[in-house]
């Protein structure tokens, strides 16, 4: 196939896996609504789900999410990024089938644990695959595909969940990994892995497909660069299988330490920006604004907004740069959260807010759009490209583990703060975190737009990049 956008096609096919990730994240929203109805009209358990059961389900998702990246890292190292990503379907399909035949809370907890494992697994596997197939031209755009796939999965569940039966929703979610596995079978293995394994001819064919080349000569220069990189790495590190993926390599060299600091910091601020808190309290914001939309349609509208705003980023990330988008996003998120904090502070002290009842809904819409067009996708785009190739598996694994832990921790912390002090204090705290995120991006984050991967490593190490 000779088409200049083949690598975008491969990236889109790979990110069908993240659609399942989005389905797993959004699943509780419509399903727990069905399972907590006293009428038991669409409840396979025959009993109302308790708050304790829901808490167990959320904890199970987090526990599974911590195991998934470790499994994906091991399989990627031994079988390659393509096989590792394909195997994500082996986790998702049984989990959704289990939820289709679920008859007890115990099975639901087990299924949610497997889905959590699959979510963490996919987030690592797709990041590694995209990072190895992307050319410098499309690297930024491909890094944003993760957010697009995730928000598409969220949108599917938000729009279908309230209007179909419990069983039908599980069938829809199960169809997504089946579709992914079917389409992704036709995508190539990454050239880096093929060269590393000594499959030179297959590496040429993979590069020709990804770059849309008609002749091997068109990709020979890039292939030579990959071979030279692998040769130098093997010469420097001795036995790659024993050393290059070891944790100590992230801390021995200053450049690797800075890459870890930047990526881990971005993941921390991304999860602590408050997106899950905002979505969890969206119904309150709809009520405060006297919006005529009910919670079902309001959630669907938010799903559409998340998806559409995330689709904007690939068109701008390589024009404006990563740091400007992160800075603008941090400022916008802080303003939206501070506005919500001010509104609920006025509400607390019984100040009349009639003329500004539109403010919570406007802030909600602005926050969701800014996050999904900025910090959400751009943070992972940088994580994907900032580590040296041989350290990507362990570096991205640490970031995914951090993402899972930070997400759960901030949600529990803010929920406790809301119960103890009120929504206004929670929003003020999140606004402060976003201000800190902007400061971090301004002072620490490296601009990678227009840089080759080797030039990124040079800048991280403090070497001035000379460009002719």
Automatic annotation (TrEMBL):
Keyword Cell division recorded: no
**Cross-referenced InterPro entries:** MFS_dom, MFS_sugar_transport-like, MFS_trans_sf, MFS_Trehalose_Transporter, Sugar/inositol_transpt, Sugar_transporter_CS
Q: Name one Pfam family in it.
A: Sugar_tr
Q: Where in the cell is it found?
A: Cell membrane
Gene Ontology CC? membrane; plasma membrane
Q: How does it sit in the membrane?
A: Multi-pass membrane protein
Work out whether the entry's keyword set contains Transmembrane. Answer: yes
PROSITE patterns noted in UniProt: MFS, PROKAR_LIPOPROTEIN, SUGAR_TRANSPORT_2
Keywords for this protein: Cell membrane, Glycoprotein, Membrane, Sugar transport, Transmembrane, Transmembrane helix, Transport
In this chain the Major facilitator superfamily (MFS) profile domain maps to 8-449
What superkingdom does the record give? Eukaryota
Record GO biological process: transmembrane transport
Spans traversing the lipid bilayer: 59-76, 83-103, 109-131, 138-158, 164-186, 259-280, 296-317, 324-346, 358-383, 395-419, 425-446
**Single GO MF annotation:** transmembrane transporter activity
Q: What is this protein called?
A: AGAP003495-PA
């Amino acid at each position: 196939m000779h088409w200049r956008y083949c690598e975008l096609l491969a990236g889109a096919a790979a990110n069908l896996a993240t659609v399942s990730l989005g389905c797993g994240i959004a699943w509780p929203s419509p399903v727990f609504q069905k399972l907590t109805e006293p009428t038991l009209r669409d409840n396979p358990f025959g009993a109302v789900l308790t708050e304790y059961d829901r808490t167990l389900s959320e904890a199970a998702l987090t526990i599974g999410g911590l195991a998934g990246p470790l499994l994906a890292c091991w399989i990627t190292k031994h079988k390659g990024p393509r096989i590792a990503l394909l195997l994500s379907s082996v986790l998702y399909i049984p989990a959704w089938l289990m939820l289709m035949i679920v008859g007890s809370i115990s099975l639901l907890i087990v299924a949610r644990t497997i889905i959590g494992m699959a979510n963490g697994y996919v987030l690592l596997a797709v990041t590694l695959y995209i990072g190895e197939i992307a050319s410098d031209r499309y690297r930024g755009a491909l890094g944003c595909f993760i957010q697009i796939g995730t928000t598409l999965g969220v949108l599917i569940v938000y729009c279908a969940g309230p209007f179909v039966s419990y069983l039908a929703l599980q069938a829809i979610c199960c169809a997504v990994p089946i579709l992914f596995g079917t389409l992704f079978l036709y995508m190539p293995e990454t050239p880096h892995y093929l060269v590393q394994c000594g499959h030179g001819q297959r590496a040429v064919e993979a590069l020709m497909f990804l770059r849309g080349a008609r002749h091997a000569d068109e990709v020979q220069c890039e292939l030579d660069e990959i071979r030279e990189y692998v040769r130098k790495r093997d010469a420097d590190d001795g036995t790659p299988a024993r050393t290059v993926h070891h944790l100590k390599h992230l801390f021995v060299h200053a450049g690797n330490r800075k890459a870890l600091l930047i990526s881990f910091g971005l993941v921390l601020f991304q999860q602590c920006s408050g997106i899950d808190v905002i979505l969890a309290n969206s119904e309150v914001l709809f009520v405060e604004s006297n919006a005529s939309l009910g919670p079902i349609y309001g959630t669907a509208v938010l799903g559409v907004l998340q998806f559409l705003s995330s689709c904007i980023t690939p068109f701008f990330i390589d024009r404006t740069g990563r740091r400007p988008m992160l800075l603008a996003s941090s400022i916008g998120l802080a303003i939206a959260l501070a506005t919500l904090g001010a509104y609920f502070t006025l509400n607390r002290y019984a100040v009349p807010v009639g003329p500004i009842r539109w403010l919570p809904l406007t802030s909600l819409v602005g926050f969701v759009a800014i996050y999904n067009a900025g910090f959400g996708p751009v943070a992972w785009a940088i994580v994907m490209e900032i580590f040296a190739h041989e350290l990507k598996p362990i570096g991205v694994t640490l970031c995914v583990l951090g993402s899972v832990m930070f997400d759960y921790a901030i949600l529990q912390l803010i929920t406790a703060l809301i119960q103890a002090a009120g929504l206004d204090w929670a929003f003020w705290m999140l606004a402060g975190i976003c201000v800190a995120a902007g400061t971090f991006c301004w002072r620490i984050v490296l601009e990678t737009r227009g840089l080759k991967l080797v030039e990124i490593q040079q800048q991280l190490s403090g070497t001035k990049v000379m460009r002719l």
